């Protein structure tokens, strides 16, 4: 099989990375994709760095068995903990990560706080602190750890009273503060955008890093001349460590296929 016709692999701690895959399907409709969600071990954001590294290598090895031509680490926590080690180990293929889209939030140059919602590990890692340092002079940045939110989304609960009250409680620490924008620092979180807008109001801009990650994926495929030139619409295969029909059904619903 020509490298151009090989699939692109995606992995995440669960169903969250489907928000990135959704963008990839729009930008690269002729590519085949294989998605592995590690819902059995979700969430990654409360595990140790070593545990996340081990799980990230396991996911990458699984995808490589399917002869993928690139791997997208569609998980902020796994990117923070493992991306450098993955790139140093698998040097022959592009490995694309994701990070909180802080730059576009700062560039909006609006009055108020820039809130970064993320898992505790993403906010604790050196990669995130470097990102904060880079922009701290230009904006009032507030990290907001959201342990427990991934678990809702893993069950397919993306709107309704439960999520709404969870978000209200999280943002209660910022009551009375003007919020200019919210950066979604976990790939699970785009699925609760609608409910988040209800809580914060439509004037607060909500930003996620999916488009930037997918643009980088396309750029690397073009640079290496391995983009699929077929006219056929690509195929999508969804795998999950839970090995249950329910999680595959939730995945398809979130992916809107």
Tags for this model:
Rossmann fold; 257 residues; 2 domains; Glutamate racemase; globular; 17% strand; 4-stranded parallel β-sheet; alpha/beta; Glu_race; 44% helix
How does this structure look, described?
Helix 9 links the parallel strand 7 (179-184) and strand 8. This protein has eleven helices and nine strands. 44% of the residues lie in helices and 17% in strands. The strands form two sheets. A five-stranded parallel beta sheet has the order 4-3-1-2-9, with helices on both faces. A four-stranded parallel beta sheet has the order 6-5-7-8. The chain folds into two domains: 3-98 and 210-255, 3-Layer(aba) Sandwich (Rossmann fold), CATH 3.40.50; 102-208, Rossmann fold (3-Layer(aba) Sandwich), CATH 3.40.50. With 257 residues, it is of the alpha/beta class.
- The CATH architecture of the largest domain would be 3-Layer(aba) Sandwich
Portion in helices: 40-55%
Q: What value does the Rg take, in angstroms?
A: 18 Å
Low-confidence parts lasting 5 or more residues at pLDDT below 50?
Answer: none
Mean pLDDT: 96
User: What is the terminal-to-terminal distance?
Assistant: 27 Å
**Category by helix and strand content:** alpha/beta
- The count of helical stretches stands at 11
What is the approximate shape?
globular
Helix-strand pattern, N to C?
A: EHEHEHEHEHHEHHEHEHEH
Q: What strand line-up does the widest sheet have?
A: 4-3-1-2-9
Q: How many strands, what sense, and barrel or not for the largest sheet?
A: 5 strands, parallel
Kindly identify the CATH topology of the largest domain.
Rossmann fold
Can you tell me the number of structural domains? 2
Strand content: 15-25%
Number of strands: 9
CATH class of the largest domain: Alpha Beta
Catalytic activity: L-glutamate = D-glutamate
Keywords: Cell shape, Cell wall biogenesis/degradation, Isomerase, Peptidoglycan synthesis
Protein name: Glutamate racemase
EC number: 5.1.1.3
